[in-house]
Design brief:
The complex is a heterodimer of chains A (141) and B (408). Chain A is an alpha+beta fold and 141 residues long. Chain A has five helices and three strands. Classes of the chains: A alpha+beta (141), B alpha/beta (408). Bound molecules: pyridoxal-5'-phosphate.
């Protein structure tokens, strides 16, 4: 296990300079999730319009892996339809299983592929994506 | 204490993790097992196993003797007055839930109080929340000082004539502090309340005497004290246990069964419904033998020395925050390293073969009190050495450097 596999430069950059960190208008869809085993928490906000995610922001507490993952997720999900967003979440799950997947046009996420070698940290990386999935599924109901 | 000879007896310690010799500093979560315990369980299955308390055949009585022999060992280990004051459970959590469900739920009424602290493990907190919800009793907390400890004066103020149960951990699994449970038990008794002690972290490390503490109930887990998982015990004073109703019904625990009514066996069997955890009880008995051979006072001294050494070495590191009091701490140190998240700390250490705990340690209310969402914890046991503490420090320096570079 190499640390650099896990903590790639891109990840550290998102950790240090999280994109879309903060809160949206009160009418945004808000999903709060926590990781009950470690106490980390995330509040994801999605601005949705007619089956489209128009904006996304997050706040909360977490380690470098969970926060950088949230930062990347909010970047890539903006402007996507609900179905496209869910498809991305599926892709991310595949990435966590160690399957070779590509995120065309947004390669940053692929830096998280190393998490696969650190099974204890997969839960950290998937927290924000689970929030995304939950938020969209709520909207689709 | 000859640590090298002790380490020799723990097969699991002799391996490499991620290319480095394993440094296991997570014994407060679960300790490793010596060869004698592993062998005792194997021998039991190879030679003696059958069900207990019913067979008239030879194996039936061997298994029964082994199981009841383990109960006697636990009783004498805790200095209980009688073996029947020991009820085998799955561990601390089940033992505490048994007291909550069988004793407290039947005793508490609206207006009564249950007193605990904010440093409790969830296993000694949620059962009391549930009792309070179900009975209308009030859950009260003894206030904590900034370092997480509490004063006996505050305990006096919180425990009143309305208090029915005081429940408290003997040793905090986060702060490493040893609570004055004997003194609190005296306050509880003056007010007519029972004293419940969570012994999950004390039993592995120090001489415990339930009669000297004069606690009414005492719970612990085998897996934190060199024994197998899935076994622990509840000690209860005979007078109290004898009045308590079982909460699990079925085989083994009954006396006479009629179509519409039945009667229960005496203690401890009425609380051990179903086929008990025989092999694990045998393993726990072997663990007690192992610990007693070294001597509980020796173990106590050793782990306190390691914790004190770790405390000092950690304090030398810039940016480290250590939680809990400095003096008189049991064998663990909980800390944070600057603003590096404890998960990241634990992962870097893991790549160096060092196992520590990162998270809230099942103490979310205490984390809130300490104003953090999680912490890292190094915990020590009979097989740990100062050199391993040095390796921890080296690993933390590496963590600082790594995150310094990567972030900065
Ligand atoms: C103080 C304390 N109480 C209770 C428990 C629960 O023990 P178990 O999980 O063995 O039931 C633990 C274990 O982590 C503990 O440290």
């Amino acid at each position: 296990m190499q640390l650099d596999d896990l903590y790639r430069r891109v990840i550290m950059d998102h950790y240090k300079n999280p994109r879309n960190h903060g809160t949206l208008e009160a009418d945004a869809v808000t999903i709060k999730l926590n990781n009950p085993t470690c106490g980390d928490s995330i509040a994801l906000q999605l601005q949705v319009d007619n089956g489209l995610v128009t904006d996304a922001k997050f706040s909360g507490e977490g380690c470098s892996i969970s926060l950088s993952s949230a930062s990347m997720m909010t970047e890539v999900v903006k402007g996507k339809t609900f179905d496209q967003a869910l498809e991305l979440a599926d892709k991310f799950s595949s990435l966590m299983k160690g399957e070779p997947v590509e995120f065309e046009g947004y390669e940053d996420i692929e830096a998280l592929s190393g998490v696969n070698k650190f099974p204890a940290r997969i839960k950290c990386a998937t927290l924000s994506w689970n929030a995304l999935r939950k938020g969209i599924e709520q909207q689709q109901e | 204490m000859n640590i090298a000879a002790i380490r020799e007896q723990f097969p699991i310690l002799h391996q490499e993790i991620n290319g480095h010799p394993l440094v296991y500093l997570d014994s407060a979560a679960s300790s490793q097992k010596p060869r004698s315990v592993i062998d005792a369980i194997n021998r039991y299955y190879e030679k003696d196993h059958s069900n207990v308390h019913r067979g008239v055949h030879t194996l039936g009585s061997r298994a029964t003797d082994a199981y009841e022999g383990a109960r006697e060992k636990v009783a004498s280990f805790l200095n209980a007055a009688l073996p029947e004051e020991i009820i085998f459970t799955r561990g601390t959590t089940t033992a505490l839930n048994l007291v909550a469900s069988s004793y407290a739920r039947n005793v508490c009424k609206p207006g009564d109080e249950i007193v605990i602290t904010q440093m409790e493990h969830h296993s000694n907190l949620i059962p009391w929340q549930q009792v309070a919800r179900a009975t209308g009793a009030t859950l009260k907390y003894i206030p904590l000082q900034p370092d997480g400890s509490f004063t006996l004066a505050d305990a006096e103020l919180t425990i009143t004539a309305n208090t029915k149960v005081v429940a408290m951990t003997y040793v905090s699994n986060v702060l490493g502090l040893v609570n004055p449970v004997k003194e609190v038990a005296a306050i509880a008794h003056r007010n007519g309340a029972v004293m419940v002690v969570d012994g999950a972290q004390s039993t592995p490390h120090m001489r415990v005497d339930v009669r000297d503490l004069d606690c009414d109930f005492y719970a612990f887990s085998g897996h934190k004290m060199c024994g197998p998982t899935g076994i622990g015990a509840l000690y209860g004073k005979k007078a109290l246990l004898s009045k308590m109703e079982p909460i699990e019904f079925g085989g083994e625990m009954i006396d006479y069964v009629d179509l519409y009514e039945s009667t229960w066996k005496d203690i401890p069997y009425r609380f051990e419904g179903g086929t008990p955890i025989i092999a694990n009880a045998v393993g726990l008995g072997a663990a007690i033998d192992f610990l007693q051979e070294i001597g509980m006072d020796e173990i106590d001294k050793h782990q306190r020395q390691l914790a004190a050494y770790a405390y000092d070495r950690l304090s030398e590191l810039e940016g480290v925050t250590i939680y809990g009091p400095k003096a008189d701490r049991a064998g663990l140190v909980t800390f944070n390293l600057g603003d590096v998240h404890p998960h990241d700390v634990a992962t870097v250490l893991d790549t160096e073969g060092i196992a520590v705990r990162a998270g809230h340690h099942c103490c979310q209310p205490l984390m809130r009190f300490l104003n953090v969402s999680s912490t890292a914890r190094a915990s020590f046991y009979v097989y740990n050495t100062e050199q391993e503490v040095d390796q921890l420090i080296a690993g933390l320096l590496k963590t600082k450097e790594f995150f310094g570079h990567a972030i900065g």
